[in-house]
Amino acid sequence: MSQIKCANLWQMKRGIQIVIDGFDPSLNASVKSRLEELGFHQGARVLCTQAPRLGAPKLYKVGNAVYSLEKTIAESVIAHPDTSE
Amino acid sequence: MKQLLLVGSPNSGKSMLFNRLTGMNQRVANFPGITVDTAMGPAVGRSDLLVVDFPGAYSLTPLSGEEHVAVDAFYKMLDVPVGQIEAVVCVVDATRLEKGLVFALQVREACRRTGHPVMIVTNMHDVLERHHQSVDARGLSQRLDMPVIPISAKSGTGVDHIIQCSELGVDLPKSDLRKDLIAFDSSVFRNLAESLSNEFGPKGDYLLLVHNRADHFFLSTLTGGLSFLLIMFLLFQAIFSWAAPLMEGVESLIGLTAQSVLPLLPSGMLHDFVKDALFGGLGAFLVFVPQIFILTLIVGFMEDSGYLARAAVICHRPLRAFGLTGKSFVPMLSGVACAIPGIYAARTIESARRRWLTYFAIPLMPCSARLPVYGLLIVAFIPNESVLGGVLGLQGLAMLAIYLFGIFMALLVVSILSRVKVGKGSDLPFVLEMPPYRLPGAKTLAQLAWSRSGDFVKRAGPVIFWVSVVVWVLGYFPNQGTDLGESWLGAIGKFIAPIFEPIGLDWKYGVAIIASFLAREVFVGTLGTLYGIEGAEEEFTSLAQQIQDSGISFASGMALFVFFAIAAQCVSTLATLRRESGGWALPMSLLVGYSVLAYSLAFVAFRMF
Questions:
Q1: Does the N terminus or the C terminus of chain B have fewer Cβ atoms within 10 A?
Q2: Which CATH number is B2-204 given?
Q3: In the 8-state DSSP scheme, what is residue B31?
Q4: Which H/E stretch holds residue B512?
Q5: Contact check, Cβ <8 Å, B189/A38
Q6: CB contact under 8 A, B208 and A64
Q7: CA geometry: angle at A9 spanning A8 and A11, to 5°?
Q8: Which residue of B has its CA nearest to A43?
Q9: Residue B538: pLDDT over 50
Q10: How far is B187 from chain A, CA to nearest CA, in Å?
Q11: Do B194 and A63 touch (CB under 8 A)?
C-alpha cells in the first residue's frame, strides 16, 4: 500500500488509505470549508471504499461516514499514501 | 406557546422524531435532504409546546439552498426573547457521531450565546445495540455540560425523556468549551467533534464494512449499471402490471356504484349530471389512482433502503454529460411522482446553474399526473398482448417507452440549455453523503404510498370535479344534452378546432387539452364528461372503449402521447417554480416554450405514424 504514489484523492484506487496534506489553492473557499467540516481536513486519514470506472464519483470513508466525491473536487484534495499501517 | 426546536444533520432522523413527538406524518426517508422546509405541530400530551422540525444542515455556515433555509430559519427562531424556546434539540445519528457532533457543537455555541437551552439527542441506538455498541451519553453530557439523551426514534425508546427533560428545564451550558470557539472556526468544532467521538462514540467500522459490500455490488461498473437498469425496468413494468388488477377493481366498483345509483334517480338533468360529470368525469380519473399508489410505493422503497443515493452516484457521470449532476437524479425521480416535491428537492443541489437546469428538466419528467392520461391512451391505442412468450406486456413496454421519451426530452432540452448561458452563480461540485442501507418497514412504506396517493387525489380531485361541472354545464346546455355539437361547449370547441386539426384531433380533444392546462389529469375527466354527454346509453362504459369507438386514428393517439409528454400543463408546478426561482420569467418561459415544442413534435408524430 505504501508504495502506491498518489498526489490527490482522485488518484486513489479502492482499498487505498491516504493522509490529506491540503487543498488546491484554486478550490472555492466555501467548498474547502465544507470538506473540512465533513472530515476532509489536513492530516485526516481517508480510505477509498469504491472506485467505479468510467469517471463515476468515488466513495471515500472519513471518520465514521462515507461520502461520494466527483473528479473535479477529489482532484483538489492533495494527499500522500498512509504509511503508518 | 413555547417551542421545541429540532435541528441536526441531514438524515439524522429528525423528521421521524418529529412524527414521534407530534403524532403527525411528516415525510421521512433514508436520503440526505428529504426535509426541505420547516414543519411544526403541537407535542403529544403537551398542547402548550410547539415542535418545529428544521431541514437538515451540515453546518451553520450554509452551502446549499436547503441549508440556507434551515440556517436562516434557525437564527430567526433564536432571535426571540429568552424563555420562549423551551429547548433546542440537536439530533445526532449515533452511528455517525463525529459528523453530527460538528454541527451539534456549533448549535451549542449559538444557543449559549443567545441564552437558549440546548440538548443533544443521539438517535438510532437500536442500530448500535444490534451490533453491541453504544454511545457514552453520560460521559459526553458531563464533558459538554449539557443533556445528552440516547434514543431510537424508530422504536420510540427514550423519546419521552426529551419532553420530560425539556419540561423540567434545561440549564445553559456554563463553559466555553474552548476559547477559540469564539471565532466560530470550523476546524475547532471539527477537531473537538473528532476527539469526542473517539472518546464517547461507538468503536469499530463494521457497520461501514457491511455497507461497503453492498456498495461494491450496486456501484461497480458492471453489476451497478445492470442492477440500476433492472430496477428502473421493474419500476415501470410494475406501474402497469401490478396496478392492473387494482385498477380493474376500482373501475368495476365505479361501474357497480353507477348501476346501483343511476336507476334511483329520475330521468332528467340530475340523472345526466351524476352519470356524465360524476361517474364519467371524476370516476374516469379515480380509476388511475392505483397506479400512483404503486409508483409512490416503489419510489418510497428506493428512498428508504438507501439505494437512491447510490443511484445518484451511478447517474452522476451520465448526467454531467447533459450539464446536470448526480444530485439532479433525486429531484428528477421525485418528479416522476410529482413535479412539486421534485422542484423542492432541487434545493439540495448546491450549484445554482445545475439547479436551474434541473428546474427545466423536472416538468418534462413523466409525473403521476401524466399517468392517468398515458394509462387511458395506452388502453385505447395499444393492444393488450404479450411478447417474448408472455414475459413482457406490450402495454407495459409502451408505458416504459413513453416514460423514456419524457426523460430523453428532459435531457435533450437541458443539454441544449447547458450550452447557452442558463442559471446564475458558481458551479459547485458534487459531494454526497452515502446513507446506510436499511430494510424499509412495510407499514411505513404503505403509509407513505397511501398518504401521497391521498394527497394527489385531494389536490387533483376538486379541480377535476369543478372542471367536469363546468364542462358538463357548457356541454349540456342549451339543448339538454341532445346534441353536443350544438351546445355552448360545441361552439367553443369548433372555434378552437383549427388548432388541433393538423394533428387529427376533433374539437372534443381540443377542449380537453385546453382544460388540462390547469392540470394534466383534467384531460381524462373532461373527456369522460364529454363522451358521457354524447353517449345516449344509460350504462357506464369505460372511457378507453368510448375513445376506441370514436374512430380516432392511431397517428392522433401518438400525437397525444407526444403532446402530453412535453407540454407544461400544471398550474401548481408553475406556481412552485415561481416561488423557487423568485420570479415569473422561468415558469412563463417553460409554459410557452414547452407548449410550442409539444405541439410541434405532436405534429411531427402525427405525420410519422
A1: N
A2: 3.40.50.300
A3: S
A4: helix B507-515
A5: no
A6: yes
A7: 75
A8: B191
A9: no
A10: 7
A11: yes
A5 CA to chain B: closest CA distance, Å?
23
Which pLDDT score, from 0 to 100, does residue B489 have? 83
* Closest-CA distance of chain B to residue A65, Å: 6
Average pLDDT (B370-382) is 89
- Show me where the domains of chain B are located: 2-204
Q: Does B327 have pLDDT greater than 80? A: yes
Query: Mean pLDDT over all residues of chain B?
Result: 83
Cα–Cα dist B129/B434, whole Å: 21
Distance separating alpha carbons of residues B497 and B155, to the nearest angstrom: 60
The residues in B 233-292 lying below 8 A from A, measured between CB atoms, are: none
Contact B58 A37 (CB under 8 A): yes
Q: Which of A37, A53, A73 sits opposite B429 (nearest CB)?
A: A73
- Tell me if A64 and B95 make a contact (CB, 8 A cut-off): yes
Q: Which of B579, B9, B115 is nearest to B347 (CA)?
A: B579
Determine the residue type at B450.
W
pLDDT digits (tens, 9 = 90+) for B270-307: 998 898 878 877 777 787 788 778 877 887 788 788 88
pLDDT at B555: 94
Which one of A64, A70, A72, A85 makes the best mutation probe of the B interface by having the most chain B beta carbons within 10 Å? A64
Task: Give the side-chain half-sphere CA count within 13 A for B330.
Answer: 28
Per DSSP, the three-state class of B2 is strand
Grid coordinates of A54: 468510467
CB contact under 8 A, B430 and A30: no
Partner A contacted by B326 (CB < 8 A) = yes
User: CA B232 to CA B221: how far, in whole Å?
Assistant: 17
Global ipTM: 0.89
Which tens digits make up the pLDDT trace of B24-71?
766 555 555 555 567 888 999 888 999 998 888 888 887 766 677 778
Chain B residue with minimum CA distance to A40:
B190
Q: Do A34 and B63 touch (CB under 8 A)?
A: yes
- B198-236 tens-digit pLDDT: 899 887 666 676 788 889 899 887 888 899 888 887 876
Distance CA(B280)–CA(B545), nearest Å, equals 13
Tens of pLDDT along B341-374?
778 778 777 777 888 899 999 999 988 788 889 9
Taking Cα atoms as reference points, which of B159, B158, B83, B162 lies closest to residue B117? B83
The angle that helices B571-581 and B585-608 make with each other, rounded to 10 degrees, is 140
Model pLDDT, residue A69: 93
* pLDDT score for B140: 94
Contact indicator for A67, A49 with CB cutoff of 8 Å: no
Closest residue in B to A53 (Cα) is B221
